[in-house]
Design goal:
6 helices, mainly alpha
């Protein structure tokens, strides 16, 4: 009886309203980033950066990753928070790299933002693997 309740709590069934809420959240974030990038391009006299334009796609990619992980693997809230923090860190790093690229300047601290983002991403995937092994 106890194992049945545990299995019901850990089931990876995702409702349609949950999928809609995820889609709305990440599409809204993408639209806001598109507006920021277009506004920045407008005020920089049409000069833009590839990294800045690619930062727009990160919320969509992360949203798909999070949704597929939630569908197939049950994971805890802090793992999702690590994934979100890595998304924000990588988006910030890409945007800053684009700003410095437009102005022809370099900063020694921008690569460290990418290292932190990749570290958070690695920690979150490691925690998903550990959680999957402990739930078996």
């Amino acid at each position: 009886m106890f194992q049945v309740t545990v299995l019901k709590e850990r089931s990876a069934i995702v409702s349609i309203s949950f999928i809609k809420a995820y889609a709305i959240k990440y599409v809204t974030t993408t639209i806001i980033l598109i507006c920021i990038v277009l506004t920045y391009e407008l005020f920089s006299n049409g000069v833009t950066s590839l990294m800045m334009r690619l930062s727009v796609f990160l919320p969509l990619i992360y949203g798909l990753i999070l949704l597929s992980l939630k569908t197939f693997l049950p994971y805890k809230r802090w793992t999702r928070q690590w994934l979100m923090m890595s998304m924000v860190t990588l988006m910030t790093g890409m945007f800053l790299f684009g700003v410095f690229e437009i102005y022809g300047n370099q900063n020694i601290f921008v690569p460290y933002i990418f290292y932190v983002g990749y570290g958070l991403l690695g920690c979150s995937f490691f925690s998903i693997i550990v959680e999957g092994r402990t739930s078996e």
